[in-house]
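pasting for the record
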Amino acid sequence: MVPVNFEGCAGYFHEAAGRRGVVICGSFGFEEICARKSVVLLSHELAARGVNVLRFDYFGTGDSLGGPLDRDQVATWTGNIRAAAAWLRSHAGVSDISLVGLRLGALLAVNAADGIESLATLALIAPPVSGKAWLRESLAFSSMIAPPVGATTRGEAGDALTGYRLTAETAGAIKTLDWQSLTALADPSILIMAREQMQEAQRVAALFAGHAHVEVLPFTGYGAMMCDPTASEPPMPTLRLLADKLAAGVEERASVSLLPPCLPLAGAGFVETPVQIGADGHINGVLCRPAGGDERRNIVVFFNAGGIPHTGWARMHVDIARKLACSGTASLRIDLPGLGDSARPGDPSTIAIISQDLSGQIAAVNDWLNERGFVEIALAGSCSGAYHAFHAALNDARVDRLVLLNQVSFIWSATQAMKLAAWQKTKAREMQTRASALDSDEGQASEAAKLMARLFPIAKKFARESLEAMMTLSAMANAMLAKQNAVEAAFHAIAGRGTRIMLVYSENDAGLAELDRQLGPDGLDALPGVSKHILANADHMLTQPEAREEFGELVARFLDQRSTVRTGATAATHAA
């Protein structure tokens, strides 16, 4: 797997020995980040069968250049798919190309197909009936997954899907997407992977009645894959079935790939380079530096929040990284081993990774940064990313700044594991309930969405209160058994050597209760170099654009306070 870019799009090429190529056409927003790990694993499965794969972020999304307010995005995205196919044909020496489209990506793939030579197969995963139907369902899901908190400003941003913004122009263009362009195609094979208990695929298949080669198969495990980025379970049997279908009859090619160099992507004030860290390149990420090389020798590393890819929820890490670069601060956003672009076949589940000690892998990242001249390293993480950053800083004196956003756990315990496992099990069922309710006519679906939007928060509240009670009992038991408060001791150890710590919490976040349980309501007062900030009208993942912007400003000010006093080989950093 090697990083590539083309026409401002960032992606990865999975090289294989066959003459067949596949372009992965992802969905958008919440659906894309839920499926990211599964898409990576599907790409590995295809490459193992001799199929070359190119997956990428559409322009204005993920690690690519551009942003959500760009004009003509839908036309740009279909053009990106055609450019990806041309890249495969030029550099991988393939003789035929297939498109794998997920949800919105299925519609985009079909609308891009007429410009792709030697198109062999269209594999459509959970294809919506139309762009209008996809947008309606996505807006309904958004209101349930991340309902508004406090006042928000729409402005020119138009609709927001779980924090991912769509302009009114982009939303309007999505609504026009349909399957009419199929009539102009030279009859490629069409494979429809239907989501469980849905009539949608059958309705879409009816539109393909005039094509000779149409096959409809169940996409078993769809609900568990798309329920949540962290709870997502890649449906490996289904992914292998799809890989087998796409690899059938693949022939080896005589020539080798002629890959062009992966040049940095340059934007207004920043330059970004994909990186692969470690002897086996198992940690993938993006290094963002100020344009023109005018940078300080400090850097901040952004970690995954649960199973959310390194781009961050609603692209938060990308936005913050590029703004920091404009003020002279470099950053590195990475996928820890087993997550996002760093996922490999056989990796443990996302839930298991959260409970692992990744201090050694993070230390290897710090080594890599030291080798490139960065002497002051800050770690920033949200939720489980904050947990890993906290423990990495405890074990590595090179960390001079620590940003912990909505950290809900400081010490992993059996109670934490039970809480997380219970939450994970409910997510897939919740997704199935939502999808089934919306698999009806538009009026009934709208009423179902409104009902679920009222009921799900109530169910979550009862579950959260029960789990919070267990967490309190667990913390009390640990305190009685321990001779010293381990969390307080860890804070003192980190801050005592000069590392500055900034705690940031959304208003009423569960992490605040955990902090009080571990340190007491006034526990932070006795800790040197530790500050706490509360984000008003913000949810746990900062779905609200205003909350993400405020957090980014806090991070920028916090990193800008550095003044370094070196003692021997250790850098101790204090607020200016």
